[in-house]
Amino acid sequence: xxxxxxxxxxxxxxxxxxxxxxxxxxxxxxxxxxxxxxxxxxxxxxxxxxxxxxxxxxxxxxxxxxxxxxxxxxxxxxxxxxxxxxxxxxxxxxxxxxxxxxxxxxxxxxxxxxxxxxxxxxxxxxxxxxxxxxxxxxxxxxxxxxxxxxxxxxxxxxxxxxxxxxxxxxxxxxxxxxxxxxxxxxxxxx
Amino acid sequence: xxxxxxxxxxxxxxxxxxxxxxxxxxxxxxxxxxxxxxxxxxxxxxxxxxxxxxxxxxxxxxxxxxxxxxxxxxxxxxxxxxxxxxxxxxxxxxxxxxxxxxxxxxxxxxxxxxxxxxxxxxxxxxxxxxxxxxxxxxxxxxxxxxxxxxxxxxxxxxxxxxxxxxxxxxxxxxxxxxxxxxxxxxxxxxxxxxxxxxxxxxxxxxxxxxxxxxxxxxxxxxxxxxxxxxxxxxxxxxxxxxxxxxxxxxxxxxxxxxxxxxxxxxxxxxxxxxxxxxxxxxxxxxxxxxxxxxxxxxxxxxxxxxxxxxxxxxxxxxxxxxxxxxxxxxxxxxxxxxxx
Lengths: 190, 340
Prior knowledge:
- The structure holds two protein chains of two kinds.
- By secondary structure, chain A is α+β, with helices and mostly antiparallel strands.
- Helix content of chain A is about 35%, strand content about 10%.
- In chain A, strands 1-2 form a two-stranded antiparallel ribbon. In chain A, strands 3-4 form a two-stranded antiparallel ribbon. Chain A has a two-stranded antiparallel ribbon with strand order 5-6.
- The model of chain A has no long low-confidence stretch (mean pLDDT about 85).
- Chain B is of the alpha+beta class.
- In chain B, strands 1, 2, 3, 4 and 5 form a five-stranded antiparallel sheet that branches.
- In chain B, strand 3 (about 20-25) and strand 4 form a beta hairpin.
- Chain B contains eleven helices and eight strands.
- Chain B starts with 8 loop residues before the first strand and ends in a 22-residue tail after the last helix.
- Chain B folds into three domains: about 10-60 and about 110-150, Pleckstrin-homology domain (PH domain)/Phosphotyrosine-binding domain (PTB) (PH-domain like); about 60-110; about 185-330.
- At the A-B interface, strand 2, strand 7 and helix 2 of A face strand 4, strand 5, strand 6, strand 7 and helix 3 of B.
């Protein structure tokens, strides 16, 4: 097991680079400096195993496969799992059922999130610039801002300033339209 | 719905493009790469126990250094002009901005970083500055070492053993690749109209600077006409070829120039129209136009912006095209084949 392309080659001249084992910087023939930090995981072989069949009576069996020998216990529910069912999750060992449950409960498998606060902000500012649009866009901005407060937020630290600002601006625009309407009605009456 | 406090700590570094921003975060048992698109965020996790290697390579600064030097040179020329024409406040303000820019630009070192797991090698786009990349790599390295038991040095050397060279390097006389059809090649090349447009913008910037510093504005239609021709020269190829042939800095230069020039053209057109219908204006409008007309720092500022945009665009279009991933051994990208 070793470094995979393209890490093995200089990205400027495409020459092969011989990295130092201690992680020190080395110079390519084109003058580009490079360094590689290598970790023990590079030697770990990941091979799929169908699980060993139980040979003697009294051996612990997998919860899902009665004829397979258990190799570990799930760190979440405690069920015995065979090599086929064993799932390494960071430093923990889980069974497939617990992974399915975790997917629904936690953010560990989330791959993307929609940023309703940014949508609300863009809508609110856009409608403020082109005010005629705000008759339709301001309510949309308010809806998106409220949705931003209720929807799952970003996994990474992120304030709700955008949503608050969009909500305020949207309410101002709606207020502006209401005021304009009242003003026109009053003027027509007088 | 209650929202838990984020468990991630932001790592130094970050890379922002037109509608994309990449950042790296340190989690309890993994590194999270977050890519912010216009209205969404995408995530990718690298568990400390799965990280096989971290690779950092320097990126040559040739063209960027040239662009920085040109920008600083233009700024110095503008500062001298402002002081010489009796505008020390604007000159001092521009000096502060120029010194700050020079400080950042001259200390900047670019690099590229990758992480290798059992799945493959992935680029870490947020680690594109050497100083922040070194800090971030040190933090990731600390966590990764803690998550993985140490290895003897001889095994590490075995992991780093030199791989075989690339196939096209060992071939004595590699066969020439089949020539692409000329029409297809031409359709992929950015239009020369962009170059003409940025050349015109450079001329407009020089004329504007000259007019702002010395000449009474006796040619009111020159600048608006120039702006409109520039807009035509950039918008026509943009509509014909689309954005696919101009990416990265070229697209940013073209779009920024269109937005800035379009905004300035609006003012220039209204001013030129007002010049030709001066009697029809009310007193307030005349006062505003007279004030704008005599504000030399404003015109010098516009001239500097035009010059910088022109230099940016010319450098972006004159520089050699970046190699396309897939054709060479360029690094893999993170979220699919977005370079292809």
